Amino acid sequence: MVENPASLIHFSSSIGQITVTATRKGISHVLLGKPRSNPLPELHPTDLLAQAKFQILEYLDGSRRVFTLPLDWETITGFQRDVLSITLEIPFGSVMTYGQIAQLLKKPMASRAVGGALSRNPLPILIPCHRVIATSGKLTGYTGADGITTKILLLRKEGLSIVNQKLA
Q: Which among 46, 51, 79, 144 is placed 20 to 30 Å from 18, CA to CA?
């Protein structure tokens, strides 16, 4: 017997295709953009996935600032979990730097490691790694959908001004 079967939904949005996966514990993955291989068919549609789709689309149309979805943290451990826990607390319309997160972790030299942990964020948008920028204000390191272009779109949806891939 499978202990934690996954369910899956695909949908289109203003930033492109989004795929959300859930387990019994909560949302486990959000994939922005088209899958690299043939997408899996939707599996075991659930009320949770319908709610995830609804909340993500509300966020993207500007009517939602906070998500109220349970997240499945089971595959996120150690340093990455610490980084993503801090990132989850960055308010809508605000940003932090990789260095600030490293400081909060009491690892001031770990800015690059913070970036590495964020690049493997399995829950983009829900855990808002797009709100993390370089100390210079430059937008760097976004792996979702169209990369920095998507990061710019998300930050602009939150009311931030971006000029030449830099926070203005």
A: 79
